[in-house]
Amino acid sequence: MSSERRPARPDRNLALELVRVTEAAALAAARMVGRGDKEGADQAAVDAMRNVLDGVSMDGVVVIGEGEKDEAPMLYNGEQIGDGTPPQVDIAVDPLEGTRLTALGMPSALAVIALAERGSMFDPGPCVYMEKIAGGPEIADLLDLDRPLPETLALVAERKGIDIRDVMVVMLDRERHHEAMAAVREAGARVRLILDGDVSAAMLSVSENSAVDLLWGIGGTPEGVISAAAIKCIGGQLLGRLWPRSEEERTAAVHAGYDLSKVLTCDDLVAGEDVFFSATGVTDGDVLQGVRYEGARGATTESLVMRSRSGTVRRVFARHDRSKLRALTGVRYG
């Protein structure tokens, strides 16, 4: 055996460290559920996430964050995160996906973070929105942003061996989607509207045993990058194309060198081969259970923790003592 080459030891799974980050953000935001304060809920999540990230052993740069430095005092685009030790990574965060959902006590709010090798995450620049379509591994090759949506729905039904009336498309409830909603319904398929929550919906569209077959619509570009990270871990595909909101935004994107006609795949949005992803539920949803309180000090969380390199998807149920966490981290968890 001494002359044989020993197998390499597994390297660190950062996703297992990141779950503490999303748990902290979810626990902090959960006390704001149903209180009608979007900004307060978001700030609580940001503060908690930033606090715990400081202790993660990595040299990280925020590529997808809360905005530019002058707009976001913490977790801003370009901010250095972690204790400065290797590995060097890009970071995408959404400390509270669904601020409005949280404020209104509605389902599917999440705390989310994704990591990949340095230089591998797509920077959307001035483009806030993108067209998106996503689906699971079984239909990944059928996804197309140029083909009429009803034709794609028919292909999905055929591939899955189901009636088109059983096909469900999830999309944001926005006026810009009304024409597509009508086309889906006219084709015989069904529409599931969501108030917010692109990442949660994208994960739902690629999950096994999900009632949703397809995500379609125009939503946030940052959420598109985070969704791509999750899908690289779970399997499936997301296609996106930048969608400028105005002629001014279009001009800025062209001048910055962006090809607005290019269809971006998951590998374009997150080019790294070692992608880490963690999401923790804030409010109950189809993907994750939200924070639940137990007595005066206890709370439980449910998280999805994933790594693309190993293909491992873990569902983590945790019980927390909020008073001990507060003493340990200095963050108020309610």
Q: Can you write the helix and strand succession as a string?
A: HHEEEHEEHEHEHEHEHHEEEEH
* Shape descriptor: globular
Structural Rg:
20 Å
Integer average pLDDT:
92
How many beta strands in the DSSP annotation? 13
Largest sheet: 8 strands, mixed
Fraction of helical residues: 25-40%
Sequence stretches where pLDDT stays below 50 over 5 or more residues = 5-10
What is the tally of helical segments?
10
Q: Structural class of the secondary structure composition?
A: alpha+beta
- Percentage of β-strand residues: 25-35%
How far from one another are the termini?
56 Å
Q: What is the secondary structure topology, with strand pairs?
A:
Layout: H1 14-30, H2 38-53, E1 59-64, E2 80-81, E3 88-97, H3 99-104, E4 110-117, E5 129-135, H4 149-160, E6 168-172, H5 178-186, E7 190-194, H6 198-206, E8 214-220, H7 221-234, E9 237-242, H8 247-255, H9 266-269, E10 276-281, E11 292-294, E12 298-307, E13 312-321, H10 322-329
Parallel strand pairs: 1-3, 6-7, 6-8
Antiparallel strand pairs: 1-2, 3-4, 4-10, 5-8, 5-9, 10-12, 11-12, 12-13
Helix pairs in contact: 1-2, 6-7
